[in-house]
Amino acid sequence: MLLLKKSLNFKYKIVLVIFIVLSVGGCAGMPWSKTPGEYDFFLEDADGEKPANIDDLESDQTKGSTEAKLKAKTALGQDDLDGALYYYVKALDHDPEDAESLVAIGAIHTKRGNIELAILAYRIVLGENSSNLPAQIGLGLSLIRVNKYGEARFTLLRALKDNPQKPRIYNGLGVISDIEHIFTEARWFYAQALKMSPDSPVTRTNIAYSYFLSNEWDNAEKIYKGVLNQFPKHAQASLNYGLLLARKGQIFDAQSQFERVLDKPKAYNELGYILMLDRKYTMAEQLFQKAISSSPTYFEKAYKNMEHLKELMDNRNNKRT
User: Fold this and answer.
1) d(C-alpha 312, C-alpha 316), whole Å
2) End-to-end CA gap in the chain
């Protein structure tokens, strides 16, 4: 009941803030809020929880927006997302119109998977300045994460109109085209991105995945190998290549590939999930069991996948009888 209440409170705050943004959006130059503490909800996660070390952070006073942002950037450099988020929110207390801090808050929430909060941060910026490029790109890429492809395409194309030299925009548009299975268009976007950044592992990985989606697996594998030869620790290329190997039936090679960037329980679970989708239920069950036995308290996902797998196996057996 408590969790439900927190979830409802969080969603209420989101709706309320969106209403405020829309209400002031038509008034040029009018910030949506000038009240200190009004941005504190950005400290919360999707369950309405603030960082565990919030008391320690609040004991550190900042004298202005510049100092707060310097502390935020220092925290980011130390991979302290809680600290970075706190100081960016404090920067907004000193300067509620600070677009840089809001964009940074959006990026942190994107990294954490709190996409609704990220989208809200970007929309607040764009409500004040519709041509803010980092907010346009951040919003477009975040909208892809929540399957709002039409609005994402519109947002990224709008950004591209005045900024034709940004590879991230072309990559985002390429991803949307791939999702919609417009592969020729996707590869045109990726080609434009490569012109500006020929060695980009992100763009090359996107191209390889585009070939994977269109069942051109030899082309995809060649590109993945090239990326990983140059960038051995590139996580997305490793995961995507592992997916390709699993789909080709090279299970042990796929597992090895996953383990380059994931711990063993997670690697077992990811590979088991792929095999479950391919209806290779026996092998999937073995991998889920390995994930659970390797880390029984750590991998709740593996339990859930195992339950889903048993349902699928029962359904298959019922059809046979």
Assistant:
1) 6
2) 43
Q: Which amino acid is at 94?
A: H
Per-residue pLDDT tens digits for 254-306: 989 988 988 888 887 888 877 787 777 777 777 777 777 776 555 566 657 66
Residues 6+ apart with CB under 8 A from 30: 24
The encoded tokens of residue 249 equal: 């039936």
Per-residue model confidence as pLDDT tens digits over 50-62 = 877 887 788 888 8
Cα–Cα distance between 312 and 279 in angstroms, integer?
9
**In terms of Cα–Cα distance, which of 77, 78, 136 is closest to 106?**
136
| Nearest-angstrom CA–CA distance, 43 and 65 | 17
Q: What does each C-alpha distance from 6 to 46, 48, 89, 183 come to in angstroms?
A: 9, 6, 21, 42
Q: What is the pLDDT of residues 159-200, one digit of tens each?
A: 999 999 999 999 999 999 999 999 999 999 999 999 999 999
pTM across the whole model: 0.78
| Nearest-angstrom CA–CA distance, 53 and 29 | 36
Q: Which residues of 69-99 are buried (b: 16+ CB within 10 A; e: fewer)?
A: bebbeebbeeebebbbbbbbbbbbbbbbbbb
Q: What is the identity of the amino acid at 25? A: G
- Output the CA–CA distances (angstroms, integers) from residue 305 to 297, 310, 311, in the order listed: 15, 9, 10
| Tokens, residue 120 | 């809200």
Which residues 6+ apart lie within 8 Å of 52 measured at CB? 82
Q: Is there a contact between 201 and 230 (Cβ–Cβ < 8 Å)?
A: yes
